[in-house]
Amino acid sequence: MTRIVRAFCASTLLVSLTACESGSGAGPVAETPTIAALTTPANALSISSLDSQELPVTVSRSGGYNGPINLSVTGLPTGVTATFTPAALGVDVSRSILQLIATEAAPAGTYTLTVRATGTGVAERTSTIALTVTVPRFTLTLGASAATVNRDSTVTVPVTITRSGGFTGAVTLSTENVPTDVLASLSPTVLGSDVTSSVLTLSAFIYAGLTSRTLSIRAVTPLLPPQSAPLAVTVADAAAPTFRIGFSAVQSLQPGASVDVPVSDRMAGINGETARRKPRISRLSR
Description:
Elements: H1 2-23, E1 34-39, E2 44-48, E3 51-62, E4 69-74, E5 80-85, E6 88-89, E7 95-102, E8 109-119, E9 122-134, E10 137-142, E11 146-150, E12 153-164, E13 171-176, E14 182-187, E15 190-191, E16 197-204, E17 211-221, E18 224-236, E19 242-247, E20 258-268, E21 274-276, E22 280-285
Parallel strand pairs: 2-9, 11-18
Antiparallel strand pairs: 1-3, 3-7, 4-6, 4-8, 5-7, 8-9, 10-12, 12-16, 13-15, 13-17, 14-16, 17-18, 19-20, 20-21, 20-22
């Protein structure tokens, strides 16, 4: 009887130990709440000063995290501002729009921006964007620094516009400080996005005063600083005509007598051009 009781007790103890061991197994591990990912559709972006760009930003949650997620960006260059819409994402919101605005103070170059997603009690997520800033500009150049225009004459000077930094706008040309009695015209006066050159024509009246003056060619376009280029203009007199008179023969002339002599003349005019008039008869008397 004693052996049977001992065996029963031993069996009961073994079953109890087995049951305890089976009941002590670990259950499923709970997932930690976290911001799972922060993504943007591009890791490089280009922007011109006085322009703006938009970029969607997407975040995802895991582990049952339902707190707000705050978005921010660092590494912005001078003259560039960033705005998120919205800047705080509620539990049901996973997407925001990042808007970058560049002012005329933004310097050209490439910068690394870091977008951050943060929340209470969770690790932050980051994403980097290479931002390239270009500065639109144009330059104005003349084909000459000085020009001389004769009275009753014209001269032309080429005018050139060079665009850079993504600038494609129209440029309007004008003249300032033109000498009195000189007409200045530009053709064309408005240079569209695909036009880079114009021609300045200076025309002096025949009675224009002899003078020297520096006129300016001015180029303007919306939002960009105006440009100007000087041109030293001199109004000169044309070469004065000269005359030469010739006699076709030598005649002797007695006192109280007269004789008819054929006379011809030659005139040298502007730019060396000459004109000869028909010989005529002149009467000489003594």
